Each structure stands twice: as C-alpha cells, then as structure tokens.
Amino acid sequence: MSAAEKRTRTVQGRVIGNKADKTITVEVERRVKHPVYGKYIKRTSKIHAHDEVNSAGMGDTVLVAESRPISKTKTWTLVEILETAPQI
C-alpha cells in the first residue's frame, strides 16, 4: 500500500443495490449526537461505488474508498468485501 492510498477516506457499509453494471449502491450508517438532548441518532447515506468485476452482492458488507470522479454520481471504489450475505 502506498502513502497516497493510506490517506484516502474509507467507509464501511452494506450493499443495497447491484443492478447497474460495474456499480453498487452502498448504505453507510453513522451515529451523531443530538445537539440538545445528547442522544445518539443513526444517520444513513447512500453512495455509489465502482465495482469493476461485479463481485459484490446484495446485503454484503463492503469497504469502499474515496476516488476521483468516475461518473456524475460515482466517486467511490470498492476496496474489499468484508462479509458476504447468506444466499436465499
């Protein structure tokens, strides 16, 4: 791993869509503290990531890294599949 790869931002999320060719939709969940009440709240973001070989499936837990813009909405790339979802 080079020095440039270590500085890129990576996030972990769950694949919620893989219908498009070489693209996955990942739902990233984060916890933020409420400014007044102090309770932690879950917030989610949907990001599109580049999956070159269409390896990620629905429900998989994946690690994605920020990259140069690949298309209008795709600025993330798939780094690795951390956990595969059970097939039904």
UniProtKB/TrEMBL annotation:
Swiss-Prot/TrEMBL GO biological process terms: translation
Similarity remark: Belongs to the universal ribosomal protein uS17 family.
A Pfam family this chain is assigned to: Ribosomal_S17
One MF annotation (Gene Ontology) recorded for this entry: rRNA binding
Gene for this chain: rpsQ
Subunit description: Part of the 30S ribosomal subunit.
Annotated signal sequence range: none
Function: One of the primary rRNA binding proteins, it binds specifically to the 5'-end of 16S ribosomal RNA.
Keyword set, alphabetical order: Ribonucleoprotein, Ribosomal protein, RNA-binding, rRNA-binding
Listed name of the protein: Small ribosomal subunit protein uS17
NCBIfam families attached to this UniProt entry: PRK05610.1, uS17_bact
PANTHER family: 40S RIBOSOMAL PROTEIN S11 FAMILY MEMBER, SMALL RIBOSOMAL SUBUNIT PROTEIN US17M
UniProt cross-references to InterPro entries, sorted A to Z: NA-bd_OB-fold, Ribosomal_uS17, Ribosomal_uS17_bact/chlr, Ribosomal_uS17_CS
GO cellular component terms listed in the entry, alphabetical order: cytosolic small ribosomal subunit
